[in-house]
């Protein structure tokens, strides 16, 4: 396999991509967006859909029929033959079940049919999707329901309708339903607060701009590795002599084959309305990044999921395999997906952007400080939202952001916060007000974007007009962290408004006095979360413990907090998830974690028994034959000549014995873990008792790779995977 794959990859040529049309001409051609709705819908249907998008109004059946009719006409004109409800089950991927528009009339004629019923709701036979026990198979059903805030699109020959996926009794069985509820909560809460500063604000939406990192590996080479194929990462593999030491890949010239892949991908993204903007090489060899212009968070999440599907597909056409795994290769950087987040009003204002007047800056400070306060209160919950078996290789494992949550705001804003801490209690004197206006709030420069001392080690950094959450996994659905972040900020803003209103009503304070008073207390009580130092240092570990910040290094531990008393209360108060859903979602995550480790350990066991040991034995035989031959020819004098061979034989035996023994111990550990009495205990046991064997076995396997003759080694090597263009 290895040598065939290498030959294939050497002979590959880059696919020619023509760019005949301007990108803006391609943009959203395949999306049923506003301009298409205007063209294909009645005025009534159009305005009802717009109202539903703006305020979440229900769309009645008659209107749904009209929308379906228009959507069908458009989709058929785009060459679509099928439609599907496109949803996000808790597996982390997207799911779809295609139905043809085609239908048969009683008189035997064929027609294309699609009505409001099919648009609004579907009942996929979904009993195999994870539900954490919500959906017992007898009460069975899960429904998908249309999300009009994310426009339908045609991909290949299918009309895809973004939907939520809920149980018969309404519990979320997916990642989108909780996200939509969180976005609704933050809209309500933030609108209330934004109206302190501008009465005209009617709606606030969260914005998200993700940055997708990934590896691109030749398809044949990827297929030659059972571990990459089955787990998305290499479980063994000795480091290539050259890794990323020279930093010669980062922002370097993009190789031709990769460039044509990127062009083809971007063209497809344009058609689908995904506003991709930047592309570049990342730090590790064969690692790249792609980022779009930011969008409303729900749409942005959908676009990221769609992008990952499209990438798989286009890569395949170009002879590549995309690795989205957070840590596909040991010894070089892993991949992440920074989530840039902010809040924007329907009047076009970014609430996390400092402005040109003191009032605008007070508004900025309000949202800025409330976000800090929210992250401080719920740091452990936010950490839990990015926990997964594969992301454990980054968080808490000497790799990009640490498992400890902290916020970096930079020197300038730290100074402003320090100044605000000194604001007097209660009413402010005219002098103090002027001082605040001129020298504190007024001092915030309009553009902080060039904030020079950006701290790349911070998991949650303010970057001038948005916060950047850096621990999100490259493979992950951004809906999870976005749900938690928007929920905690919503809760915080509701509390804030209550406190400010109370000061205005009961203590007779002016609005800005009340705001200053509450913010001052928040700055004081959320100090521990602010950290501008090196997030990777040992000192920070110790310091964070003193500050009582959580430091959960693995998934089973990190997601315990999902069902803590405080979390249940938070999600209940914001109406984002009920107890039943939280327990179920936690259970699904634990299950996912266990499955992940079960698969990895099985594959590794197979690699040891069926690949590594047999290869070692072959080389052993070759050496033995050689030694016997030398003995025949040289008699007693052979000893000196065969010393290196014997030495290699001994080393190989040592590592082979150890690898096999550890593989057997790992199997025993799995049997023990499987007997755990609860799913939480089972996951923790897989983490503590099974997972360590993966690294230990790897050490011996990699040592054997260095000993066995290259031509006998069956597994494609790191230098081949990472350096073949
Ligand atoms: P980097 O973090 O690599 O230095 P930038 O700071 O230029 O890159 O921005 C990266 C991402 O931030 C882009 O994907 C962009 O869409 C996103 N972004 C910019 N402004 C906002 C905003 N107001 N809300 C959400 N995302 C934003
Ligand atoms: Mg970034």
**Taking Cα atoms only, what radius of gyration do you get, to the nearest Å?**
29 Å
Spatial separation of the terminal alpha carbons? 19 Å
- Looking at the overall shape, the CATH architecture of the largest domain is 2-Layer Sandwich
Residue share in helix: 40-55%
CATH fold field value of the largest domain: Creatine Kinase, Chain A, domain 2
CATH homology group of the largest domain: Glutamine synthetase/guanido kinase, catalytic domain
Class by alpha and beta content:
alpha+beta
Number of strands: 17
Mean pLDDT: 93
- Low-pLDDT segments: none
Q: Number of helix segments? A: 24
The largest sheet is: 9 strands, mixed
Bound molecules: adenosine-5'-diphosphate, magnesium ion
CATH level 1 class label of the largest domain: Alpha Beta
In terms of DSSP E residues, the strand content is: 5-15%
Q: What is the approximate shape?
A: globular
In the residues, how many domains can be counted? 3
Family: Belongs to the glutamine synthetase family.
Organism: Croceitalea vernalis
Domain GS catalytic: 175-612
Domain GS beta-grasp: 81-170
Task: Describe the 3D structure.
The protein is α+β, with helices and mostly antiparallel strands. It contains 24 helices and 17 strands. It is globular, with a radius of gyration of 29 Å. The mean pLDDT is 93. A hairpin with a 2-residue loop joins strand 7 and strand 8 (158-167). It binds adenosine-5'-diphosphate and magnesium ion. InterPro entries: Gln-synt_C (IPR040577), Gln_synt_N (IPR008147), Gln_synth/guanido_kin_cat_dom (IPR014746), Gln_synth_cat_dom (IPR008146), Gln_synth_gly_rich_site (IPR027303), GS_Type-3 (IPR052725), GSIII_N (IPR022147). It comes from Croceitalea vernalis. Residues 175-612 form the GS catalytic domain.
